[in-house]
Amino acid sequence: MMDEKKSLISLKIKVYQLVLILLSLILGYVFIKFTAPLHEIVMAFATAVLLSYLLASPVAFMTRFIRFRAISVGLIFLAFVALISLLVYKITPVIALQVKALKIALPNLISNVDSFLVQISNFLSNNYQIQLPLEYFDKNQLLSQLMTFLTSFNILGFGDTLGGVIFNSVTAVIYVVLTVILSFYMLVDGDRAWKLFLVPFSDKIKTHMGYIKAKIDISLHAYIVGQFEIASLTSLVMLVTYLILGVPYALLFAFAQMLEIIPVIGTWAAIVPCISIIFFTSGASKAFLVLAIYLIYSQFIRDNFIAPKVMGNALGFHPLAIILAIIIGATLKGAFGVIFALPILAMAAAIVDYFVELRRLKVQASRGN
Questions:
Q1: Is 109 part of a structural domain of the chain?
Q2: For the whole model, what pTM was predicted?
Q3: Neighbours of 246 (CB within 10 A)
Q4: Count: domains in the chain
Q5: Distance of CA 327 to the CA centre of its chain
Q6: For 35-138, where are the alpha helices, taking DSSP H only?
């Protein structure tokens, strides 16, 4: 009888959780539709939130030594801009040269891929009577698409293009200015702004919203900072690996590994093309060695020692939930949707987790009475 009661309570909690998730998705969809006319302002606010979470820890460290928080935030902003500018100034020319070299080598690379597929097809046909549908592999079309992509990836002109967009587009100027101002004030006076926002609400609602905000702050900070740190560390590990092995396009491949900021999808979207190019340009032995080093680092070192420490307070998501969120985000808002999909999912999960925990405590209290 006791086991049946526990099962019934567990079922009620799961149903309650499912209802909250569905309600969150519906509210999210309504919010996106409602704020469509204010797309730039909403995106500026969302970007400012991500930037404020990313810089929160350095600001907290700086305030230990500088009494005035506004000065600390200003110094961190200047340091952040200086670091980005330095990296772009030093790294951009090298990556541009490697992109140019890859474009030159691309025709030969595609021919090697075609020859390799023909050999595999002949082997399977002679030994297992399996025919690969190579008629669907149009190497000329693939070469054209890759050349177009690499041509559009003009990293040397990125600064000029970005500058032109910012100074020639009123919308872009508003976006950048709003992002900077919002993130600055979130870091300087975010707590007071939150208290002013709560003024119209009752004490009960204030309590709920305070706990929800605390959960969201913890999970989003851990997620945003954690993913950035993990992606940066993976890029550094792979850069050292590529340089030691003498792999061509080492810096370009290491830079591509920053896609790991997007969990699950970004990890393999970065490493698989790199290993494939290494396989057809430097040989199978180097490709398999790179793959082995990456698997040892990612599966044993990163996942067992680094990720649990860095991402300890972040909400864990099932890979299917991550993929679904990214697909929905990309469908609704393109690249911006991909960037903001998982933070939005983290916020929804924090809200659901809070209310499920609240419901569980109420059930336990009713059972105790």
A1: yes
A2: 0.76
A3: 9
A4: 2
A5: 13
A6: 39-62, 69-128
